[in-house]
Specification:
By secondary structure, the protein is of the alpha+beta class. It has a single domain, classed as Glycoprotein, Type 4 Pilin. The protein has two helices and five strands; from the N terminus they run αβββββα. Strands 1, 2, 3, 4 and 5 form a five-stranded antiparallel β-sheet that branches. The longest helix has 51 residues. The radius of gyration is 27 Å and the shape is rod-shaped. It starts with 12 loop residues before the first helix and ends with a helix.
């Protein structure tokens, strides 16, 4: 009498269920992390757009000899500070108040929900300090 062996030709149901469960757990963790990552990447364009304004306000503060507090004449289009900029890429607008406060806004259709980024200048003993603010701080994307 000859004994034949049965060769396994597939996966059992339990093995397939375990694989599906593992994929589900990974997706539950990975998708929110990826979404946050893409939001941060998009918002970095808004932060970069504020860079030239930040440099211009610092130069204006040095030219005005601001040694403490905030400047009073470092707004859009004055004393070397650029005029307000319009929409470009993920950036909605970038503006500067007369006190040198820079406000950059993301385009709401970009998946960023119109997040804002503000930089408030101040001077302590002649050194310029910046305070970061806006809705991007609370949502942790800037």
């Amino acid at each position: 009498m000859k004994i034949t062996r049965r060769i396994q030709q597939g996966f059992t149901l339990i093995e397939l269920m375990i694989v599906v469960a593992i994929i589900g757990i990974l997706a539950a963790i990975a998708i929110p992390q990826y979404t946050q990552y893409t939001r941060k990447a998009k918002f970095s364009e808004v932060v970069q757009a504020a860079g030239p304004f930040k440099t211009a306000v610092e130069l204006c503060m040095q030219d005005q000899n601001v040694t403490s507090g905030a400047p009073s004449t470092c707004g859009n289009g004055t004393n070397g500070v650029p005029s307000a900029s319009g929409a470009s890429g993920f950036v909605g607008t970038v503006t500067t108040s007369t006190a040198g406060v820079i406000s950059a806004t993301a385009i709401s259709s970009s998946g960023l929900g119109g997040e804002t980024y503000t930089l408030t200048p101040g001077a302590v003993n002649g050194a310029v300090t910046w305070t970061k603010g806006g809705t991007c701080v609370t949502s942790a994307i800037c």
